[in-house]
From TrEMBL:
Ranges of residues in domain HTH lysR-type: 7-64
PROSITE patterns: HTH_LYSR
Record-given protein name: LysR family transcriptional regulator
GO MF entries: DNA binding; DNA-binding transcription factor activity
Annotated keywords: DNA-binding, Transcription, Transcription regulation
Family: Belongs to the LysR transcriptional regulatory family.
Highest taxon above the source species: Bacteria
Lineage: Bacteria, Pseudomonadati, Pseudomonadota, Betaproteobacteria, Burkholderiales
Species per Swiss-Prot/TrEMBL record: Corticibacter populi
InterPro entries associated with the record: LysR-type_TF, LysR_HTH_N, LysR_subst-bd, WH-like_DNA-bd_sf, WH_DNA-bd_sf
Keyword DNA-binding listed: yes
């Protein structure tokens, strides 16, 4: 449409995000701007394009016919243009003011993200960070493809093959239990011991997509007794502290919380392979200078855990 040729790249980015999210607030969150700033741009876009673009339908906003026509073509063209410009744009961490969007598995958030955030803020003092949790359903692929995420840090039995991937580190498995537990004096558990115990596990790891622990057990034809599930890793340690439940985690995570909460660490059975942690990103940012710098920082922080 000829009217689009008069708009700046920034206005086109706002327009594209508005048409995808159909929400001023979500557009503001995605682009790291205030809602009032996005509202100003929306009013200007309506004037320039001679169309309401978004109209209310009950409790939701819907696209006008003209907006729908724009939406069908704008995102692909804008993505290609953005990639072309960003691939050639230099990145100066001393002056950069952009927002980086990173999602991670909750098993690495307590230890990894504080170090990462500290390093990023030291080396690029004017950037903004938006840290979130990996969607276990796999929706992160679309978030990477559409620019809502720049990088993902997580642990998978087999990382998604359609995304760019770099192994960050591996960490052996340990079991956390309370002092006085019947197995607390062991150096390591046998598989027979392990299967006889009652376990607490994050519920995302007992879904149809097996996590590292249950995937390793499945390979040897075994299945643990998960007595309690929790929505996030952090809650598991509290249940372990006041019960005979056992929690399986990577050693860095395990020893950190054992010291923090006075728990006992026992080596997991040898049948449990080390947990693998990966960095994932989309091909669209493969040559983007800012994202290359971000990935280098993530890998640099990961190297501290291998030391």
């Amino acid at each position: 449409m000829k009217e689009l040729g008069t708009l700046s790249l920034q206005s086109l980015q706002v327009l594209d995000t508005l048409l995808r999210t159909r929400s001023v607030s979500r557009t503001a969150d995605t682009l790291g701007q205030t809602q009032s700033a996005i509202s100003v741009v929306l009013r200007r876009l309506r004037q320039q394009l001679g169309d309401a673009l978004l109209v209310r339908d009950g409790n939701q906003m819907v696209l006008t016919q003209k907006a729908q026509h724009i939406h069908e073509d704008l995102h692909g063209r804008l993505l290609a243009l953005t990639q072309l410009l960003e691939a050639r744009a230099p990145f100066d961490p001393d002056t950069a003011q952009q927002t980086f969007n990173i999602a991670s598995a909750d098993c690495v958030q307590t230890l990894f993200l504080p170090r990462l955030a500290s390093q990023l803020r030291q080396r690029a003092p004017h950037i903004r960070l938006r840290l979130g949790t990996v969607d276990p359903s796999g929706g992160f692929s679309a978030d990477l493809a559409e620019g809502r995420l720049d990088a993902i840090i997580g642990n998978w039995l087999n990382p998604p093959e359609h995304l760019r991937c770099r192994k960050l580190l591996e960490d052996r498995m340990v079991c956390l239990m309370r002092p006085g537990h019947a197995f607390a004096d062991r150096e390591a558990l046998t598989l027979e011991d392990y299967l006889a115990l009652q376990h607490v596990a994050p519920d995302l790891f007992i879904s149809s997509r097996l996590g590292p622990v249950d995937g390793a057990l499945a390979r040897v034809g075994a299945r643990r007794n998960i007595a309690v599930t929790v929505p996030e890793f952090g809650l598991a340690t509290y249940l372990v502290a006041d019960s005979d439940l056992v929690f399986t985690a990577s050693s860095h995570y395990g020893y950190y919380f054992a010291e923090l909460m006075g728990l006992v660490v026992v080596e997991a059975p040898a049948e449990l392979d080390p947990m693998q942690f990966y960095l994932l990103w989309h091909e669209r940012t493969q040559r983007e200078a800012a994202c290359i710098w971000l990935r280098e920082q993530i890998m640099d922080v990961a190297s501290l855990f291998d030391a």
